[in-house]
């Protein structure tokens, strides 16, 4: 069984993991005391919750007509808030996390797509994200100050400038989404833009955080055995496959590219909403559809476990009755088989994704671990169990609160670092020019252009830096050599890195399957020191030009992409940091 080592630092610290989910959010933390084994604890009390508290709050905000934040989290469930929001026409913001999704991730449901678009006027997704982060951070501070017995207020004041934050995100989120989350964290006041603050914010995928949670809850994996961790949330289903790479150090390796599916629990609710709309259209209960859907989401959906039994959505009073619509005493009856149909699209997507991961994995998959809020559904668990047994797979849920797996796992990610080898989810490269070869049919088809040094080149070649499915260690470097030929001395260089999401295992040309290429980031660096030492050259026309030769070095093995620029000077390699720039969402 895993045993965490004592904290080796010399002063007290704090790790705070924040999991903003599509429907619910939570926080976990660990106090770092020198020489003491860190413990992971959850924030279990938020404003407007009953005295018993809970480990998560709704990912919901209310803004008034001028964009002022009026209510957040559990406060949005209060009847007084709901009534005031309706009277004063506040804007309700939910599922806002999905605004950050990559452009390649489409939502299957038109209704969900429309719901995602509902942001207040003059509010960007970065601002909304920052407002929610700021609120959660404040809740964490209050909880820690009140619950740490030996002077919580003094403790917070002593560590607040060096708190380490871990933000989780779906497996499908990449550099652009991380950059947006970082901007939101700065706007929320978690960190500053100062370079020394950069390392205080870390990112972890929900799949990797869930693995850490499972290990902390007595997961044991045999050598050469493969497992799939399925984090089933409100919006996304994140699948990650692992095996043990070193039993002595309890480190794991990813054995197939992780997956992110848009088929979480909100899609079950939207299937039900469609059913209610069809059934109640044109009746006196049509205006009750939002209320009926909400009651279904909060109660009936969670209770469903037997398709042979009818279920009821309680939404009104005794006078709400219409037998022809299966409504009696304010309750709408739904047949068990109808309930099952609401779940079926999500179950089909999840089971197919698991089967695909098994086929692609480097090791034989034997076990599936199901965590996340959607994992608590007895119907989904039982149906997945039936399907996976036919594939020779066992499925388990940790015997603890699976809905706080990501926040607890986020803290463990920082403390324990169980994953040593990750796998590239897509191919990365650059739009390059290659030397024209007269005998190459692909070159003949495209023709050539001539640059200032009289070299014939073919454009739109995809120069591969990292291939999808390659395993990557944290310190592993990937580099690409470049030349810049100009008639002046360059001061800065900009290299656009592309991501290829298609099915071609060896993509070579950007004009083939062009819709599968997207901008990953731009690497920029100051090269003025290099160009000062360049000697001028002459082309055949006698014009002066300069040729700059350098390498871009990328590190993909960390949870956040890093870059450097390398060049030769007097036969020795020199390096300088490079900045990674992302487009605006």
From TrEMBL:
Reading the lineage from the top rank, the first entry is Eukaryota
Q: Which residues form a coiled coil?
A: none
Q: Cross-referenced InterPro entries, in alphabetical order? A: ATPase_NBD
Q: What is this protein called?
A: Actin-like ATPase domain-containing protein
